[in-house]
């Protein structure tokens, strides 16, 4: 018999990816889909599910939802209204919002007042390659943001060698699905098509998430400046970092050693591209140095490794399953 | 001294194209930009105008607006609320909505109750190649829809040869700018990108406009079925017609003869593409027959020949200017 | 122990899709990859395979290749040079080229002189929904073209009701992957981007394939005119047919009855889109009538249902496996 | 009577843009189009020119070509074979290749052996905002590369304030038209679509061009690392620079002061986008500082300001015309 999962916020882009992943998962099945309103059917919202997985989306009631694992695919500030109730009922939660990713201080400085600071302290940051053992026993996993996933995975191996008197600059480019299903002037086809632009340069809230995690990992402060862009692709993101090292080194060697045991982080000797990871859980990383200056470039699928497949990897760990169950490996090529 | 034009509905995609055309027009200048609310500036809505044309968008009052020509770039049903007042004040109007394009009977069957049937009767359908002399003296020109422009220009030459016992099928593909500036699920980048789909098949309201005009021109009823699609391009449209002739003929010869004097209709011996007309007033037409079956394919820029540049051509005629003044000819290639 | 497959022509787009499908297939594994030159590695040509499936592409020798099933993903005219040798050695072959799809007469009229007319006669046209039982026992299956797959699946149910005195017009739109991996002016990004154009209108060679198959199925001649287009998407195609019926009918009912037992053909009451099938083996069909005129619209993934997944379905049948093993169902949405 | 221009290399993307610009130029007309082979017609290569500008492309003979100005739109290393002959005949030349942009030392280190070092010394680097007076009297202007144009224009104002002990990192993104008309795996639609990737990171040859020019302007060495990308758009590029200043400052103020008299450089308080400059000669620049760290972002049309319209601006200056004659200002919006 399979374990069961509830997906809360099933109609959004991340929710839909969770549905797709669990439809194929060998040991977890979907117990129920939930949304704020309910009343819709997933195969009507997304005809791609017709004949494959058809189900109602129910109104979400945190007092009644059940499952071996609860995925919260809600906007930030909505998760912290309900996660506590789920945890108090003994349920285990993977939260895909930003609500449990940051220290209280940073959350309140960059987002809003936190409604559930107690559970915030217990939450584990869900990057399996870095925090696997803590994730396995956590009742609440804060699933990382998409930009932070790519940035942290590609920079963590270099933390011992970073010249901390110098800034790290990150120039990141995201597919539009990262902006979510809601229509806006920014996501109108005519705005995005044949265009590229930075948004929230130096002020995007993922900046603090990257910095905080890298400081926890490296145990020393770093200076980091982050500029994200929207580009005319649906999914996938490329996160480039430019920084200075304390001494020249072979960056490919550093990466290969750090991720020697990690099947879902691939180190490339040629520049990585987004299409080779779109549709998968892989994080592909390329790096190249010129003297003490380092260029690191990481590609992930923003909706999968940057959200849904990472959430499933975390759930697998929390449920004592093999970490790679149900994680997609075949890219949307050609 | 230049003539002056007022652009009502200046912030929409069609309005913006009118602004771009008149900025470069040798004999007409922009007298004022108007919108329902007003209070915005065109160069703030569209930074492309910075340093080039900067102006406030004023609240539109049909009792006070002035100009040698008034362009109404309003949604349908909004135009007929105000066009009458403008006409009664002696102003000349090019209306880019659907409000004055159809017979009363068809308008009310396909749109809504008409509020200004008096002026509807006087309106001239603004396809210069077909109704040039009437346009020159019309106080009110109904600027054709985008699909009808391409369909009518490409089918009109064949009217004497069409087998009327057989249907005409039209399969049309439009860039997303045709759906306007308003955001919706249909215009979300993630809906359009890597996708194509028909919308309102057999029921789109441009169908009756094409049929009515072709019947006026050909003086006999035709049977016509129309299916439009959205495709992942910003601007441009391709309108394909499939029909039967009373006898075999050389369609290129028919087209060349019909448009021998028309510089803005180009007859092609190879299939036409949208990119060669995007950014211009040209309508490119290709045709090919197999026995009595005919395939005709027309490409236009939906926002220019399908809206704004056709409106300027009409205004030129109404103001006794040369028809081609200010009409763009350089495509957005490569 | 798994059955083995050889993939000949593994480096092309169709070959790569076959690799992707067989990597995940529960009962068939890849015995070897072959190409004309050999010497390349699949994960170097397509870095998406790194860490997932790494293998050399060997030079293809029809006298030595082994496998329970041989997939020939070669250009037309290359297949017929080698298929005979494979069949004579007792191997079973799915040929993805056009070489064994047509009658000798039509092949030689539309392609070139046939080099293997003997086996041509024995080949079974591999549309599982229509020829399942013949496929099961065939030594050689001719895998259908992409346009024909969508056209035949969507028109076959209407064959009893088609007015044969009237033409069928087909307007089809394909993603660029259908044009293959080879670079040309037609597949240059700048040619395709923001563009749409017909190619080989009324003369494309898939036209005769559609006509021949529909005449075999319907046992009466039909008149058919076919116009394909390239559109700026990578994969997926939409095939629209316009035709006349002998009498009015409910087309959805006809389709639903015809495909009642077929899980991979989905009948839709709303217009279908390409994105809901891209990445899958599904064929989605929508139809709508106006009196005796019928509009039918079918969407498939050109590289999967139009090539590789259909080939795997055929191989499953030939190897007495369940037809749906390894066929992809999850679309590339959102 | 108009001045005449010869366009050598008229069939490439840059050549076509030159044709488009000169078709509309009030004081320069096209004297002749030239290509290596000749024998083609511009309106057959680009049907967009039909009915607008139709002309043969002649074989290019440097001993016989005439004109008040000669535009060389040739690949690098081809220009230096012929530019000398033109100059020796007293003709004035705008060279759009890389052949006359760099010092001899850098050219030979990054490209190949120089065949015309004599004229190399006399060539003026054609960035009008920076070298206007020298351009006016130059017989040979080396038209800047696309990336260098955006990088130099956006960094030059900050040269007095740059902390030269720290590196400048440049992350640039280009539309595919920058890769030229020739088809290759890199420019295949299926490679570019839904993708982004760096190419020649840290090693692209525009890197030395940017560095050399900034060092000439700033009179001190700088350390610069450059990573360009291809993105799925046709035209336009965004060039982001990240650097450190000697002290905090208001970057908008610095930019506004530097370009106070320059109509074609627009300083923006909001992040710039590519679509607002595509189709124009504008360079839009945004900048933002965090303490001593500076982010600068510049958008241009790679084929216009990055090539053809800059060449026309240079020609205007060389011919004592007003600099802005024939320069396009209307962006390809919406």
Describe this structure in words.
4 copies of one chain form a homotetramer. By secondary structure, chain A is an alpha/beta fold. Chain A has 2 domains: 153 residues, NAD(P)-binding Rossmann-like Domain (Rossmann fold), CATH 3.40.50; 154 residues, Dihydrodipicolinate Reductase, domain 2 (2-Layer Sandwich), CATH 3.30.360.10. Helix content of chain A is 28%, strand content 22%. A 7-stranded parallel sheet of chain A has the order 3-2-1-4-5-7-6, with helices on both faces. Chain A has a 7-stranded mixed sheet with strand order 9-10-8-11-14-13-12, with helices on one face. In chain A, helix 3 links the parallel strand 4 and strand 5. Chain A starts with a strand and ends in a 16-residue tail after the last helix. Chains in contact: A-B, A-C, A-D, B-C, B-D, C-D. The interface between B and C is large, with 44 and 44 residues.
